[in-house]
Design brief:
Order of helices and strands of chain A: HHHHHHHHHHH
Helix content of chain B: over 70%
Number of domains of chain A: 1
Largest sheet of chain B: none
Distance between the termini of chain B: 11 Å
Helix content of chain A: over 70%
Distance between the termini of chain A: 22 Å
Oligomer: heterodimer
Number of strands of chain B: 0
CATH architecture of chain A: Orthogonal Bundle
Strand content of chain A: under 5%
CATH superfamily of chain A: MetI-like
Radius of gyration of chain B: 24 Å
Order of helices and strands of chain B: HHHHHHHHHHHHHH
Shape of chain B: globular
Number of helices of chain A: 11
Largest interface: A-B, 48 and 52 residues
Radius of gyration of chain A: 22 Å
Chain lengths: 277, 341
């Protein structure tokens, strides 16, 4: 713990990551208290104050129907983070289990499982999620489903490679010799040794899920209005460049800040947990 | 059989299996969506007879494996069906829109190699210095924003505020260039029209750079970490003790072995670029596969969706085969083990 704190504080980039993510999570959790105009998360119009450049009390300006961008960004963070957590909560157990089984059992099981994984990995992630979103209805639940479908194979590949090298270690042989069951060897012996890599990847991926989800909604294939979403805010604002620059620049920077923060945090975790790339 | 041919045959075989899997996957997704695909495609105003005709044409009343059988039969003739959106063969649509996208991706890939690798080398050679930190922050920023955000920011700065580059499109409207390869930067040269080439090249810079930023970041980070590892190897110490100049050590001894993992990541990034091209094309109104892809997805145009996904995946697999061959070519261990076996 002490060592972890030391690494965090010593490296200015890691510290920046911690601060950025703390701000983002805090803003999302307490959006109701912080947002100057909480009601602007929904379908509100205020034509008296539409398309205002950043000025008090509109920190980031207002959109074309007069809603406060800062308030909407806070609520958009809330949905993005929720989506990221749910996607990883489903995708990681699936991907990890398949990777462990394929790597440990070997033989035709390995061949079949890894070829299925290859199939998912050989469709560009965004294209797979786009196709699924387009064919299903664009709701938050389906968005989570589409992103989950493209996300699990990356964990399968990571854990598969780890398992294959862990399998050769003495402790696995020892477990096998004393007659431990396959399930015990896989989940109680090998899995704990994969956890640092998995946790590091999850931290990085929280940012990348936000990035992909915003890309989907940028193309109009994500969460539908009036729900605030960073990607669709950029898409809507892009039509009014360069005059109403705040409509695109602030939501765009909001994505950048969150993903950048998770990247720095992931790098810091990698140092703390001693994970190789 | 020469080793390279053997490797090629093996990779082609695996890729073909994966591609069949991709076609099954996307075909199943496209067929199990809730609702009647024919009804969805034709819209609420279609008569029951029209819906029935389309159902018949798409074989929607047959069992799923039978439908897939029809699909494979048509595919073997190079027929991906008719797009319900454009009413043209899907293959013709893709042939029209794909070259613009490919051109964008290839230029972006080139930028990724020409900028990303040198940045990684510099960071590794001067590790711990300000240059290393600067490269690290730059590469982290590159991967931390979706390419559409970079596209918008680049456009705002370099097209609006400093009007150095054009805002949208592939080439100035005044040029009419006969399409030979579909790549405007090549077609203009074939036509011998240097002014048009200049215009096409000028138009591609910003979108390609926006597309390549995350790839540059990843290539640079990976090259750096591999080279740092290589620098600790005994043969570097030996080279130093022989008195080779630092430049030569960096280039010849430390960079070469680090190139192999970097090449692998470049192959993978190509997949990301095929997807991200959709985002960048949307910002710069680039007339590629993006507008078509998003349009057919929003209209639930089954044939076109299946066709587009299949072509994109095939290209991704092809690039990875090329990368594998390149690696086999560079890595003496693989080259010789292939020869021995």
């Amino acid at each position: 713990m002490k060592r972890a704190a030391y690494i965090l504080v010593r490296n200015p980039l890691s510290l920046t990551g911690v601060i950025l993510i703390a701000l983002v999570v805090f803003g999302a959790l307490f959006a109701d208290l912080i947002a100057p105009f909480p009601e602007h998360r929904g379908a509100v119009v205020d034509f008296a104050n539409f398309n205002k450049p950043p000025e008090w009390p509109y920190l980031f300006g207002t959109d074309l129907v007069g809603r406060d961008l800062f308030s909407r960004i806070l609520y958009a963070y809330r949905i993005s983070l929720l989506l990221g957590v749910v996607v990883l909560a489903i995708a990681v157990p699936i991907g990890v289990t398949i990777g462990l089984v394929a790597g440990y059992v070997g033989g035709w099981v390995e061949y079949v499982l890894m070829r299925i994984t290859d199939v998912f990995l050989s469709i560009p992630p965004l294209v797979l999620a786009m196709s699924m979103m387009g064919l299903l209805e664009p709701t938050l639940t389906n968005g989570m489903l589409a992103v989950t479908a493209m996300w699990w194979p990356w964990y399968t590949r990571l854990v598969y490679n780890l398992t294959r090298s862990e399998k050769e270690e003495g402790y696995v042989l020892a477990a096998e010799v004393i007659g431990a069951s396959r399930a015990h060897t896989i989940f109680r012996e090998i899995l704990p040794n994969c956890v640092p890599s998995i946790v590091t990847k999850m931290t990085l991926d929280l940012g990348f899920v936000i990035l992909i989800a915003s890309s989907l909604s940028f193309l109009g294939l994500g969460v539908q209005p009036p729900t605030p979403d960073l990607g669709s805010m950029v898409a809507d604002g892009a039509k009014y460049l360069p005059d109403s620059w705040w409509l695109t620049v602030f939501p765009g920077l909001a994505i950048l800040v969150a993903v950048f923060g998770f990247n720095l945090l992931g790098d810091a975790l990698r140092d703390i947990l001693g994970v190789d790339q | 059989m020469p080793p390279v041919v053997r490797l090629l045959a093996k990779r082609l075989g695996t890729s073909l299996i994966v591609l069949v899997g991709v076609s099954m996957l996307i075909f199943t997704i496209a067929r199990v969506i809730p609702g009647d695909p024919a009804r969805i495609a034709l819209g609420p105003n279609a008569t029951p007879e029209q819906v029935e005709t389309l159902r018949e044409r798409l074989h929607l009343d047959e069992a799923l494996p039978v439908q897939y059988g029809y699909f494979l039969r048509d595919l073997s003739r190079g027929d991906l069906g008719i797009s319900l959106y454009t009413n043209r063969p899907v293959t013709a649509d893709i042939a029209q829109f794909l070259p613009a996208t490919l051109e964008l991706i290839l230029v972006a890939g080139l930028m990724m190699i020409l900028i990303g690798l040198p940045l990684g080398v510099i960071a590794a050679r001067y590790r711990g210095s300000w240059a290393d930190h600067a490269v690290r922050i730059f590469t982290l920023l590159g991967v931390s924003a979706p390419s559409f955000v970079w596209a918008v920011i680049l456009m705002l700065i370099f097209a609006f505020y400093l009007p150095l580059f054009p805002i949208a499109g592939r080439i100035a409207d005044s040029y009419a260039i006969a399409s030979v390869t579909g790549f405007l930067t090549i077609d203009t040269l074939i036509a011998g029209n240097l002014a048009a080439f200049g215009s096409a090249a000028w138009h591609i810079v910003l979108p390609a750079f926006a597309l390549s930023l995350s790839g540059i970041g990843q290539a640079a980070r990976l090259t750096r970490s591999n080279m740092v590892e290589t620098y600790d190897k005994p043969f570097i110490e030996m080279a130093r003790s022989y008195g080779f100049p630092e430049r030569r050590i960096a280039r010849r001894f430390a960079f070469r072995p680090s190139l192999i993992p970097s090449l692998t990541i470049i192959g993978l990034d190509f997949a990301a670029m095929l997807g991200n091209a959709f985002l960048v094309e949307a910002v710069f109104a680039w007339p590629g596969l993006s507008r078509y892809g998003v349009a057919v997805i929003l209209r639930k145009d089954l044939n076109a969706i299946v066709g587009t996904v299949l072509i994109i995946s095939a290209m991704f697999l092809l690039v990875n085969i090329i990368v594998d061959l390149l690696i086999a070519f560079i890595n003496p261990r693989i080259r010789y083990s292939q020869r021995a076996s």
